[in-house]
Amino acid sequence: MLKDLVIACFLAGLLAGCGYSESLYFLAATKTDYGLAVYPSSLYRLGPDKRLSLVRVVSPGSYYVQECEGEIISVLYPNITPTQISIVHMADPTRADDVVIHSESLIVLDWFDSLGLVTNGGPVDQFLGLTKGPELDSKIDLEKVALSLTSLPSRVSPGSPQDFTHLYTMGMAGGPSNDFMLFGYREGNNLLFRTGRAGSKGVPIDTLPESFRIPENKEDIGILAANPSYLILGNYYIQQDSKSKDDVTHLFILDRTKGAWKELQIPGGTSRMRLFGSWLAVIQQWPRHAPGMPGPPWEPLHLYPDPGRAKERGIGSANLPDVRLAYSSGAARDSKIPGILELDNIQDGRRITIKTNQEDSEILLATAAGVVLYRVNDTIFEAHIQGSALVNRTTIAKDTDVPEVHWAFTGPSPPADAANEP
After folding, report:
1. Is the pLDDT at 374 greater than 70, yes or no?
2. What predicted TM-score, i.e. pTM, was given to this entire model?
3. Dihedral angle of Cα 309, 312, 317, 321, to the nearest 10 degrees
4. 2-419 domain in CATH 3.30.70?
């Protein structure tokens, strides 16, 4: 009994080095951008028998989800025209916190418009681009939503483009939905982020070195991660590595604490990435090409499904999506996903590859202490970084709603549990 308690505590508090006061939490959410299907977003704890234990329903659906590492996860809903933000505070996960956005305009969230978190190591704000019409020349208003708990009379206020100087993004989560992506553009030696439609004047968020080759002046470039410590830019145009002739994503990484740039090539021309500290978590993806072009074929008929498709949930319900259908019409429609995950340390150059042979797999968390959580379909594994390898892999969760889990963090255990702990 004592042994089971010690193991359970280790799994629940492994990321924070705690005693008996921390729990491991998972957020399960299915982003349904423009579709009619809606699925609840749910917060779970790691429960007994490697099952998920429901803490609370965070929102009745999700249109867009963003995370600020160690601070908050925000869920914007409902889909199509979102009007509310539900916030998960990692320091107080059981607390429900919902902010209503009162506006006669529509909220527009795509790479042409304003979106994103802003923080400089302090309070976290979310910016939304609002417009009264979908036309490209429609005026966009910025709204700022205070996500951190505050004593302000209102948590919704007019936003200033200058606040985007401290743009924050961890990158793209996994799952079958194509995630939103931020883009900046170059103007001389400045990197700017637009706070309006394409063609509008942007706000400088950093300086590019004179030797910077990509992009050309006025051209766009992907902002894959941005925080007070790092800025990661990605050339997402399909390109070929001269040695392997394979599609690659070319990254330009700025260590803001040192003012030093480096370059890194990631396998796959459409790979998804998310930054945890100094570890860049990658889902390798390869662009599908039109008939007659080299590389994986674009296949609207889904004749060549990616590895693991047959193991995925093939029947949807009111609360859970059909994962197979979601992949075939989502991320796997335009990209080949072979089931290969990767951890790249952008400080020391270590690269760790995890072969899952499952398209529905992703890295959920990588900590400074070397603990890694990753998901393969309906199972979550824990492993530890040792040099350039993962060791001591253990199954910590297997459950029905695990395929919808794309975020993991540690936080205080609920009061009822804490009271029963020794």
Report:
1. yes
2. 0.89
3. -70
4. no
